[in-house]
């Protein structure tokens, strides 16, 4: 059955839809548990039994979803990147047409995904090197895809004359690294910032370097001036 046919069948069968929803909820529960355990112990030191204990399920249940620990690790990392692919475009679409509003919504969207997946984000930096070559290549491709919405927004803002003529790809990756820092240095930032404060402060710093001087008064609410 094709994926489209499967989707149609789900729409027509409420019981099937409910089963699929429970299955996805269980899968996310396992991914979250694996991320927490692997961050604490390192993926090489973690057993499927430890992940099962963290999730409060049987080892056999984990193997119904993931064939091996390496497959589970890859799924934890991919889950974060796939969340970006859903959450960020939705945030941009809801922001309207203004270049700064759209960039601000996108940056907040990235940060919200990071906040939801703090353990998995840290794990990505620590453990992605332990993936096989195919896994590492998949992660690289998804990371490139993750940066593209920001690059497009920056180009649009430059063409509109709102942003300075910066190099979009470089700035996009800088913004992504700032979003990741909420997880990587959370122990430090949480002493001073709430999540909302962090997003506002970092966005203000970025926009001070991006917005053309003649437009700064227009966007004073973002620039914290």
UniProtKB/TrEMBL annotation:
DNA-binding region: 47-66
InterPro entries: DNA-bd_HTH_TetR-type_CS (IPR023772), Homeodomain-like_sf (IPR009057), HTH-type_TetR-like_transc_reg (IPR050109), HTH_TetR (IPR001647), KstR2_TetR_C (IPR041490), Tet_transcr_reg_TetR-rel_C_sf (IPR036271)
Single Gene Ontology MF annotation: DNA-binding transcription factor activity
Keywords: DNA-binding, Transcription, Transcription regulation
Residue span(s) of domain HTH tetR-type: 24-84
Annotated Pfam families: TetR_C_24, TetR_N
Highest taxon of the lineage: Bacteria
SUPFAM superfamilies the UniProt entry points to: Homeodomain-like (SSF46689), Tetracyclin repressor-like, C-terminal domain (SSF48498)
Record's protein name: AcrR family transcriptional regulator
């Amino acid at each position: 059955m094709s994926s489209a046919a499967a989707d149609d069948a789900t729409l027509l069968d409420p019981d099937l839809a409910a089963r699929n929803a429970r299955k996805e909820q269980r899968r996310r529960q396992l991914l979250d548990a694996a991320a927490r355990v692997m961050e604490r112990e390192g993926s090489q030191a973690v057993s499927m039994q430890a992940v099962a204990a963290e999730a409060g399920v049987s080892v056999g249940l984990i193997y119904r979803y993931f064939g091996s620990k390496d497959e589970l690790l890859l799924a934890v990392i991919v889950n974060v990147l796939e969340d970006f692919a859903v959450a960020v475009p939705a945030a941009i679409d809801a922001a309207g047409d203004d270049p700064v509003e759209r960039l601000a919504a996108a940056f907040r969207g990235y940060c919200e995904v990071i906040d939801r997946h703090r353990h998995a984000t840290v794990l990505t930096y620590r453990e992605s090197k332990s993936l096989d070559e195919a896994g590492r290549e998949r992660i690289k491709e998804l990371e490139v895809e993750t940066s593209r919405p920001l690059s497009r927004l920056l180009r649009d803002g430059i063409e509109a004359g709102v942003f300075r003529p910066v190099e979009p790809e470089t700035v996009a990756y800088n913004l992504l690294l700032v979003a990741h820092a909420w997880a990587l240095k959370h122990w430090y930032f949480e002493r001073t910032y709430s999540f909302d404060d962090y997003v506002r402060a970092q966005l203000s710093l970025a926009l001070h370097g991006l917005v053309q001087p003649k437009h700064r008064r227009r966007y004073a609410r973002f620039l914290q001036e």
